Amino acid sequence: MTKQEQRHEIIIAMINKGYEIMNVVEIANGIMEKMYGKDWESQPEVEYIPGCGCQHAEVFHPLITKEVEECINYERVPIVSVAEQDGQKGVRLCVGDIDIFIEAHDLDEDGKEFKWDEAMMKLKAYGKRTFDKHEMFLIAAFEDEINAALREIGGAELDNYYWSSTEYNSFGARIVYFSSGFIGTYGKCYTTVIRPVAAFKHE
After folding, report:
1. Could you report the per-residue pLDDT of 120-141, keeping only the tens digit for each?
2. What does pTM read for this prediction?
3. Could you say which of 8, 39, 68, 178 has the lowest number of CB atoms within 10 Å?
4. 51 in the same domain as 115
5. Phi/psi of residue 191, nearest 5 degrees
């Protein structure tokens, strides 16, 4: 398992415990720093699967596998990959039971911000949704890989405050700031941007 995969495992473990951790990414980075030193990310790691004839970078999860006829081993299913769905370009995020399609652009490509209630109604009118709290943590964990894929397709990177679909109470909802990994609560009367997501469709 690569160091980046270890970091992802730590983040996913914390998320699956259901902890109300607002800075889960920062905590995981701190753990990795203690384990490997401050420059733990400086050397990219690529794992080679013997007999497969191909290399797999750290964006491939060791526990997500599918058997393929042309390979005597296993082909990794990428956690993050470029995808297209319903004529829209975007990024697929596949981790455990989460398999979602993140659209390449925000709900309003001109950067318009919405109050939470307004955003939820607009999404529903368009037949779309946005990520919930659980998905939000996972997107934050793999933000670097997702942004690299978004750059590849000319999409808008995740570098802003975004609403989630998860309410905190009648006055607030969960929000994430991907640039710092901050996850918290924001008043529904305030405005911010929103990114549409959908279940990934398997053909």
Report:
1. 999 999 899 999 987 888 888 7
2. 0.67
3. 39
4. no
5. -120, 150
List the one residue out of 124, 128, 108, 86 whose CA is nearest residue 194.
108
Quick one: how far is CA 150 from the chain centroid? Answer: 12
Estimate to the nearest angstrom the gap between the alpha carbon of 84 and the chain centroid: 16
Indicate whether 89 and 177 sit together in one domain. Answer: yes
Render pLDDT for 145-155 as a digit per residue (tens, 0 to 9): 889 899 999 99
> Taking the mean position of all CA atoms in its chain, how far away is CA 165?
15
In this prediction, residue 50 carries a pLDDT of 37
Question: Pick from 51, 77, 103: which residue ends a domain?
Answer: 77
Question: What range defines the domain where residue 36 resides?
Answer: 3-77
Pick from 32, 60, 77: which residue ends a domain?
Answer: 77
d(Cα 23, Cα 150) in Å, to the nearest integer?
A: 24
What DSSP string describes the chain? --HHHHHHHHHHHHHHTT---TTHHHHHHHHHHHHH-TTTTSS--EEE-TTT--EEETTEEEEEEEE-TT-SSEEEEESEEEEEETTEEEEEEEETTEEEEEESS-SSTT---EEHHHHHHHHHHTT-EE--HHHHHHHHHTHHHHHHHHHHTT---S-SEEEEEEESSSSEEEEEETTTTEEEEEETTSEEB--EEEEPPP-
Q: If we measure between CA atoms, which residue out of 35, 34, 45, 53 comes closest to residue 5?
A: 45
